[in-house]
Design brief:
The complex is a heterodimer of chains A (109) and B (242).
Chain A: H1 3-8, E1 12-16, E2 27-29, H2 33-38, E3 44-47, H3 53-61, E4 65-68, H4 76-85, E5 88-92, H5 96-108
Parallel strand pairs in A: 2-3, 3-4, 4-5
Antiparallel strand pairs in A: 1-5
Helix pairs in contact in A: 3-4
Chain B: E1 2-7, H1 24-33, E2 38-41, H2 50-59, E3 63-71, E4 77-81, H3 85-97, H4 106-109, E5 113-115, E6 121-124, H5 137-146, E7 150-153, H6 162-166, E8 176-178, H7 185-188, E9 197-198, E10 214-218, H8 223-230, E11 237-240
Classes of the chains: A alpha/beta (109), B alpha/beta (242).
Chain lengths: 109, 242
């Protein structure tokens, strides 16, 4: 599924990166970065962590897009690093449960 | 120069997860039994028992290092050490003001007790000390430094640590690291390269004390000398005992 299709159907805001042509097949939801690193790989990651380490972890497991939930905001450092690594950063006011459910349903349909 | 046996991570009865027996005279007695020369109290998100512990430790010949264990918004445990109880308490008030506003429930969260020099409980403290404050890791490190202190990553080899929460130790801030089990040092050595290493009991009850896990090589037990040892100035250093 295209990331742009997902973004059309949820309440979210793209902070940096170009979502066009980003293909999403899988996702992962967790706030423990050590666990995310061990999860194998995922195209999309939903978390409350906004520290710049999320960009490094995303590159390790092949995440193309990070969703920061609960209305939290990325630091400028995180945004700069994501731009360098070509990772799409998105924020949403929804919580991780709601967003995970919606995106999971879209990927299943 | 001398080598001082140190334990810089100890919880008092103010920490919700600590035993009620973690009172000044009881803890001081354990430190003396274990030949500790220099010790810190590092309660979760609070500094309100520091003054009484300083008094009783000093009476027992144990030098006191005022500390705190802050829980950052990322759920990272971060130790802070300060030049005086007063400075520590000024920072402690700010951290407490950044905690969630509701009161803790002692039956669920654990008892948080202020204590006096006779080991008597004087007040039940109801700030939710077991929760993260609203400040980021970088904000907490900056705040500790603003109050003349230094920050140390707590127990990098355990849960609620920088590595557990954020996957790895970021290059900045370049602060010291505490390792709970020095035997696991090799596993994290690459990430901690060049950083000063601490190791302490992280005692939450009286049975958790042991002989020193770290030593501070310096001229005397002052904060200034402690800082110089952390920064490895003029032959001073912090060493692990293993």
């Amino acid at each position: 599924m295209r990331l742009t299709n997902i973004l059309e159907n949820i309440d979210a805001k793209v902070i940096c990166g170009d979502p066009t042509d980003v293909e999403i097949k899988s996702g992962y939801t967790s706030d423990l970065l050590s666990e995310v690193m061990a999860c194998g790989n995922a195209d999309l990651w939903i978390t409350v962590q906004s520290h710049s380490n999320i960009v490094a972890v995303a590159t390790i497991i092949g995440v193309k897009c990070i969703f920061l939930v609960n209305g939290r905001e990325y630091s400028q450092d995180t945004i700069n690093k994501a731009e360098q690594e070509n990772i799409v950063l998105v924020t949403s006011k929804e919580n991780a449960f709601q967003l995970t459910g919606k995106i999971h349903a879209m990927l299943q349909s | 120069m001398q080598c001082f046996r140190a334990d810089f991570h100890i919880h008092s009865c103010l920490s919700p997860c600590a035993d009620l027996t973690m009172t000044p005279n009881q803890v001081a007695q354990k430190l003396v039994e274990n030949h500790i020369d220099w010790a810190a109290i590092t309660d979760h998100n609070s500094t309100r028992n520091l003054a009484v512990f300083e008094e009783i430790f000093n009476k027992n010949g144990v030098s006191f290092l005022p500390g705190i264990e802050i829980q950052t918004v990322e759920d990272i445990h971060l130790l802070g050490y300060f030049p005086s109880v007063q400075k520590a308490c000024e920072l402690g008030e700010i951290i407490e003001s950044k905690l969630p506003k509701h009161e803790s429930d002692p039956e669920i969260d654990g008892y948080q007790l202020l204590v006096n020099e006779a080991d008597e409980f004087t007040e039940m403290w109801l700030k939710p000390l077991s929760l993260p404050c609203s400040l980021t890791l970088e904000e907490c490190v900056a705040l500790i430094e603003e109050y003349g202190g230094i920050a140390v990553y707590a127990h990098v080899d355990k849960a609620m640590s920088i590595i557990y929460q954020l996957g790895f130790i970021p290059p900045e801030p370049f602060i010291s690291c505490e390792i709970y089990m020095p035997s696991k040092l090799e596993r994290y050595a690459g990430q901690m390269k060049g950083r000063t290493l601490f190791s302490s009991s992280d005692a939450h009850n009286l049975d958790s004390f042991s002989e020193a896990k770290m030593m501070v090589k310096c001229c005397n037990r002052t904060f200034d000398e402690f800082l110089k040892a952390v920064m490895k100035i003029d032959g001073r250093e912090v060493m692990l005992c293993h």
